[in-house]
Design goal:
With 148 residues, the protein is of the alpha+beta class. Helices cover 14% and strands 35% of the residues. It has helices spanning 8-20, 35-38, 77-80, and strands at residues 42-48, 52-56, 61-66, 69-76, 93-102, 116-118, 123-124, 130-137, 140-142.
């Protein structure tokens, strides 16, 4: 019930808490590092709708199957310097990057219409998925958390 129960906010708050509480392992100096280090210095999360699954291949490729969608989201280190994530304060996070993946029928998991994602590269495959971003300002989502 990820979309139906509007769970994106909850998932992103948890990623922010992981970063704020120092539970993520960031490379030395990554807060000042360039884009090449951004993938290694981010907190990632995956949200999956009901009646949907991500089938993970040994090479780290996932295929989305089912009737719903999945969301692969990243909060990069460049957002952490402007993040407000403290007890009693509403969350502010300038940028959350996501890819929305649509599923295909469970009986047709090899259907070319199914969106695929590479977990190692943290990127959609073969032009599948819809990439988008949104932010959070003083506890309110700015933009569309579920994409265009």
């Amino acid at each position: 019930h990820f979309v139906a129960r509007d769970r994106m906010g909850r998932m992103i708050v948890m990623t922010a808490r992981i970063a704020a509480d120092g539970l993520a392992d960031f490379p030395e100096g990554s807060r000042e590092a360039g884009a090449d280090d951004a993938v290694a210095s981010s907190v990632r999360a995956i949200g999956v709708d009901e009646k949907t699954a991500l089938l993970v291949d040994p090479d780290g490729t996932v295929t989305t199957v089912g009737n719903g969608t999945a969301y692969c989201c990243t909060v990069g280190v460049d957002s952490f310097s402007d993040m407000v994530c403290s007890p009693g304060q509403p969350l502010s996070l300038p940028k959350v990057e996501c890819v929305r993946l649509a599923g295909a029928s469970f009986t047709q998991y090899d259907n070319p219409a199914a969106d695929a994602f590479d977990l190692g590269a943290w990127a959609p495959l073969d032009g599948t998925g819809v990439a988008y971003s949104f932010g959070i300002a003083e506890g309110e989502i700015v933009g569309n958390a579920y994409g265009p």
